[in-house]
Amino acid sequence: MSQLIASPVSRRRFLAASAVAAATLGAPGVVRAQKKEIVVGGAASHKAFMEPNILPLFEKKYDCKVVFEGTKSLVNLEKMVSNRDKPYLSVVMMDDPVMILAVNEKVIDRITPKDVPNVSKLRPAAVHMDAMWVNYQFPWAGVAFNAQKKAGGVASWTELWDPKNKGKVIVPSLQNTEGLTVLFLAAHLETGKPLKEAQYQTDAAFKKLKALKPNLLTIYTQMPQAFNLLEQGEALMIGGALSSYALQRKTQGAPVDLSTPKELGMTMPSGIAKVKGGPQPALTHAFINEMLGAEYQKLLSKVAFAIPTHVDVVAAPGTPDASRVFTPDWANVTKNRKAWVERWDKEMAV
Amino acid sequence: MSTLDVAVRAPASRGERLDPLALLALPATAYLGIAFAVPLVLLLVTSVWTPAGLTIDGYVKFFSDSYGWRVMWNALRAALWTTAICLVIGYPVGFALARSRGVVQVLLLVALILPLSVGVVVKAFAWTILLRSNGVVNQMLLATGIASEPVRFIFTEAGLVVGAVNIFLSFMVLPIFSVVKLIDGRLLDAAATLGASPLHRFLRVTVPLSMPGVIAGIAFVFSMAISMYVIPTLLMGDRYQTMSTLIARSYLFMRDRSLGSAVAVVLLGIAVAVVVISGWLARRSRDVR
């Protein structure tokens, strides 16, 4: 110790050494600080294919960092509304009925071909309200089942109501957009009318849904928990399960599969939009453009089991034909959903 | 003197000088002021103030709908059951802990405190596995012949209470333990020499002396149980609403801040009432002693 104290270190040498040390330690921080970053608000269930497959490609190409905040679409909407004056999200990926609310709240901005050239390569059905938002994929909802305990799959939605499946059925909450599939299919089964007409028969839908109560194991808001119960055999079927989650679990080796019953499945359009006044506009445009481009759409079709929206990209094998899926009136959904959820809470409670 | 006794003690009189040691509480007070008091005031304001002006619509909507009462009763019922079972199980454990010595006491304390380091989400999810038809609970019932076929526990109120008791039990045991260990054993000996039977000694000496711990435990467990959010979400799903889940739903889904904050204020009122009544009971039990 005394040697150290007595060592001939001049003040000048000490200051020089300190400067070198500060530069060495501080430089990576400066470099890190210079790296651009955008925050994308998306669906929690999409995290599984976005984080390992899509985001690394984008981060590498644009030398940036993308933070993916996975939650419910309505929570993303609340984040945009609450931070309207100083948005921190750059991009939102939500389902169509919530996009309509976002347009009404004036928290998303129009996507123009000048900023996002790939928007002109989309199928017309994927562009909404003059490109206030667009769809980057069309997943669909069907009936997921435990492949070990129900090897034949699910031929009809009526199997959910079969008394032999007492306590073995799970359905999504109406808070989750895929939950609307069960509501509309219940209306169709109760009235016998085509889905296009039956979707407006709410009273009939609730009458049929109440008859489902003895068969319900639970109603979920958290998809992973529901699939865990299905995979473990505690549940036999999930009515209104998303292809992007169910088929991904299947490829990961879980004993689950997804049927599109004879009465049809339902499309669950995945939208993407630019947050109004969000940070990093150039990077935001690049991200949306890549999501709509052929390269990412091919990859998404493979990893998310969804129908592509780019005109030149062909759907991956196993994706149902457009005639096997029903597209509801999303404007009607947006108008009535709150009332439906309130009614659902009361009539479907334990 | 228990923590509760300190908490309910009368404030210093006007002429009494402030103890400089009280300044040590200044950082925590400042933190709570910013992190708790300010949001609380904002919550109270939001419950009666909307962009349209002053209103009590949130309260009217909650109390005028039978579903609101049903949700409140759900939360109260689950909290009452959880608190009662925690008390029945936790009271003897508090005594066992206080009376044990050396390694046994250390092991008991570790068994009680270590589970607190595991997150509520993990514990609640673990219960969804244990309560399944092929889970450990059903396997035990079938193996012992108590049940002839699997009993449905998962997504039932019984399952919810079982899971909540597991998570909150420590908060009942620890206050009871901290009070019971201070009970002078010679008081029981004195009662015995005066001819009191074991039951009489327990009811007239032990129970009154342990009341501050019991009341503190009830206040802790009830306050946490009535406001639990993760446990009912995972163990009951969307078919069973409590006040906490209704608050989240009002804010995040219905986007009805007025209703959400009104329910939050009602929940807060219930929790404050429990603490105030507990304080009053603690003072009363001390006065009786």
* Architecture per CATH nomenclature, i.e. the level-2 architecture of chain B: Orthogonal Bundle
- What is CATH's topology name of chain B? MetI-like fold
Q: Please state the average pLDDT score of chain A.
A: 87
Quaternary structure state of the chains depicted:
heterodimer
Within CATH, the superfamily of the largest domain in chain A carries the name: Periplasmic binding protein-like II
- Could you state the CATH homologous superfamily of chain B? MetI-like
Strand order of the largest sheet of chain B: 1-2
Please tell me what the overall shape of chain B is.
Answer: globular
Count of structural domains of chain A:
3
Which topology of the largest domain in chain A does CATH recognise? D-Maltodextrin-Binding Protein, domain 2
Helix content of chain B: over 70%
List the total number of helices of chain B. 13
Report what the structure shows.
- The complex is a heterodimer of chains A (350) and B (289).
- Chain A is an alpha/beta fold.
- Chain A has three domains: 2-26; 35-138 and 269-319, D-Maltodextrin-Binding Protein, domain 2; 140-267 and 327-347, D-Maltodextrin-Binding Protein, domain 2 (3-Layer(aba) Sandwich), CATH 3.40.190.
- Chain A has 13 helices and 15 strands.
- In chain A, the strands form two sheets. In chain A, strands 1, 2, 3, 4, 5, 6, 13 and 14 form an eight-stranded mixed beta sheet that branches. In chain A, strands 7, 8, 9, 10, 11, 12 and 15 form a seven-stranded mixed beta sheet that branches.
- In chain A, helix 4 (73-82) packs parallel to helix 5 (96-104), helix 5 crosses helix 13 and helix 6 (179-191) packs across helix 8 (202-210).
- Chain B is an all-alpha fold.
- Chain B has a single domain, classed as MetI-like fold.
- Chain B is 74% helix and 1% strand.
- Chain B is built from 13 helices and two strands.
- In chain B, strand 1 (49-50) and strand 2 (53-54) form a beta hairpin.
- In chain B, helix 8 (157-180) packs across helix 10 (198-226).
- Chain B starts with a helix and ends with a helix.
- Mean pLDDT of chain B is 88; it is low at 1-12.
- The A-B interface holds A 72, 74-75, 77-78, 81, 167, 173, 175, 216-222, 225, 229, 232-234, 338, 341-342, 345-346, 348-350 and B 67, 70, 125, 128-129, 132-134, 152, 154-157, 233-234, 236-241, 249, 251-255.
